[in-house]
What we know:
By secondary structure, the protein is of the alpha/beta class. It has two domains: 1-24 and 34-268 and 394-601, Rossmann fold (3-Layer(aba) Sandwich); 281-393, no CATH class. The chain has helices at residues 4-10, 46-53, 118-128, 131-136, 159-166, 180-196, 207-220, 233-244, 260-264, 274-278, 280-298, 310-323, 340-351, 357-370, 377-398, 408-419, 429-439, 443-449, 492-501, 522-534, 568-574, and strands spanning 63-65, 69-77, 87-95, 105-110, 137-143, 226-231, 249-255, 326-330, 334-338, 479-486, 505-513, 543-545. The radius of gyration is 23 Å and the shape is globular.
Amino acid sequence: xPRRTRSLAAAGIAGVILAGSAVAPAAAAPxxxxxxxxxxxxRTSPTEARRVDRVPTPKLDWYACYEYAECATVQLxxxxxxxxxxxxEVTVLRVKARDQQAKVGSLFLNPGGPGGAGTDIALAAPYxxxxxxxxxxxxxxxxxxxxxxxxxxxxxPSVKEQTRAYAGLNVAFPWPKDEEKAYVASSKAxxxxxxxxxxxxxxAMSTAEVARDMDVLRRAVGDKxxxxxxxxxGSALGQYYANMFPDRVRALVIDGVLxxxxxxxxxRARSLSQEDRLRSAQGAYKALRExxxxxxxxxxxxxxxxxxxxxxxxDLVAKRLQAEPVVVxxxxxxxxxxxxxxxxxxxxxxxxxxxxxxxxxxxTAELLVLTDPAAGTAAREQARAGVNRLAAKAREQARRxxxxxxxxxxxxxxxxxxxxxxxxxxxxxxxxxxxADQRDPYFxxxxxxxxxxxxxxxxxxxxxxxxxxxxxxxxxxxVLMVGNYWDPATNYQGAVTSxxxxxxxxxxxxxxxxxxxxxxxxxVTGAIDAYLVRGALPAKGTVCVGDIQPFVALPDEPARxxxxxxxxxxxxxxxxxxxxEPKRLPPVVGPLPAVGTLTVR
Length: 601
């Protein structure tokens, strides 16, 4: 089914919520000093403490896996109000600290999504985490309930029925208008499937449940308090844990921060789309415009679009593709079509990487030629070859999805739709997308449409024990929040407002590129590592600068330092890297994980 990959891209935008437990009143506010003295914190509410503490500490029966790791599975309550009732299986992976005698404890990782597998990022940890962290912590990854190797959520009884339901979602967003009806119909079909066949797991996948699982597993690995590093959606999980269990935090770092109140939808904002609250498109558009502006300043030798006006060239390609898609001929694979939605989705995918500026200007320059009827044969052939390199990735991904059942979209929706407040009717999304695009061009529609299956009239399953706040509890140790100026998915303003919301927090800003900041500079990475290991916070107001800046040449580096760690099978084949080897970027799962390739039609 050649268009299946795009259906996953189309339905991704970050989203979660939590709902309902009381928290004790805030205590007196000590100054934020790292670990220099004991912190006065809020207390875990009696209701929340009772839910998790009456669950017996699981015994993790570790076994060797993936060459250098250990794996285990555990049965946890499907509903923490019924600890002796139904359970769900959750998988855990551990990479043991290199220096066991000097071990601090365990560090839990979450890669984002929602729907990202914690076992994947834990296995990749030796490739991207600092050596001091690897020396001093057992690295723990948990596949959240419904996700990855844990008991999987399934919203349809068969691949055939899933494929039919997904049919209208096989685009980054519907364009032109005649695609909107099919997208709305498929959104309703998926919402209904996950609210019926997907139960009971879809009603028990809220971030609150994952936070409860993490607290039980914290006990299982022998830690009195939690050490946590979460990326992207992992920032939501970290903030929920901090507010549900504020006195059980040892060190908590979140990179690529989502404001939890905006995430959930508080008060009148409940009727808005999640994008209206989070403004991810604003961050993406800001990053795109900055790249195009720097392209112009860098000159034609560094950036091909600087031969003209880069901003105008991007706008022109967009307008041409809005009017008519371009058909590209490939001698090996026949023809394929590039639409306006493909162009926007691929641009956003490129912005997720610190090196993505190269793809942004390259794809724009190539499509500027291919959409120009007056372009010469030689120029068109060169441009076609460049576009086909992206299409080759789409063809490869398209071969992966049919069998077995792929629940990647359903893991995302199982959290977001069950957790957060969304507009009632999927039929309202065309108008919401237009409004968002007027505010934040190109990306507004893409981010808005991703949550159409969450419309409350069709996504009816709920988690009565979700958590909706408050998100201003004082934690027993500071929370370090990391915001990247040019993040195209988790808008930098999310880090700013979240740091204001959480009293015992410190904001670390970074003038870096791509989605999340860890690994983009020694400044960011060193600050995070120092806090995790020693409790040393960066100075208030610290702004790091990313090593990679658009159109600025760097000395040659090993290729491995420029890419994220690969799949589990690739990592297992390589084995754990030696101390001191160059680090890769963390394999963060962005809110739109499949965006970035063209659709092959």
